Amino acid sequence: TEKTKTDPHILQREIEQIQKQAYAFSQEEWMTNAGDLSVPIFDHRGQFVCQLGIAGLSSSFEGEVENLLILLKEAVSAISPKL
Questions:
Q1: Domain CATH for 69
Q2: From the CB of residue 77, how many other CB atoms can be counted at a distance below 10 Å?
Q3: Residue 72: how many CB atoms within 10 A of its CB?
Q4: DSSP state of 72
Q5: Cα angle 4, 31, 8; round to 5
Q6: What are the mean pLDDT values of the chain's consecutive 10-residue runs (83 residues total)?
Q7: Number of domains in the chain
Q8: 30 within domain boundaries
Q9: What range does the domain containing 33 cover?
Q10: Is 28 left (phi over 0), alpha (psi -120 to 50) or beta?
């Protein structure tokens, strides 16, 4: 889409920000009207194994990112020790 980031420098800064905040959120970057929010899942050794996320209409995330992030992190806290 027109919001897709392709500049390597911008992408590198975004990756660094995602690592720092421990979640990724995008709106209309990969598909018009789509949004997604995800958090990493680490196993019992602290190794990254996958991510847990939600996707939907971009508008459905408005004003809800913080609440959804809390729910995702709670789910990850329950999953990680079992890996």
A1: 3.30.450.40
A2: 10
A3: 19
A4: H
A5: 20
A6: 85 92 90 93 91 94 94 94 88
A7: 1
A8: yes
A9: 8-82
A10: left
Burial class (CB in 10 A: 0-12, 13-18, 19+), 15: exposed
Strand, helix or coil at 20? helix
55 phi, psi to nearest 5 deg: -140, 150
Residues shown for the chain: 83
Residue 1 within any structural domain of the chain: no
State the pTM of this model: 0.81
Looking at residue 4, its pLDDT comes to 81
Question: Considering the domain boundaries, does residue 3 fall inside one?
Answer: no
Place of tokens 């009207």: 33
Could you tell me if residue 46 is inside a domain? yes
pLDDT the model gives residue 68: 96
CA dist., res. 28 & res. 79, Å (int): 29
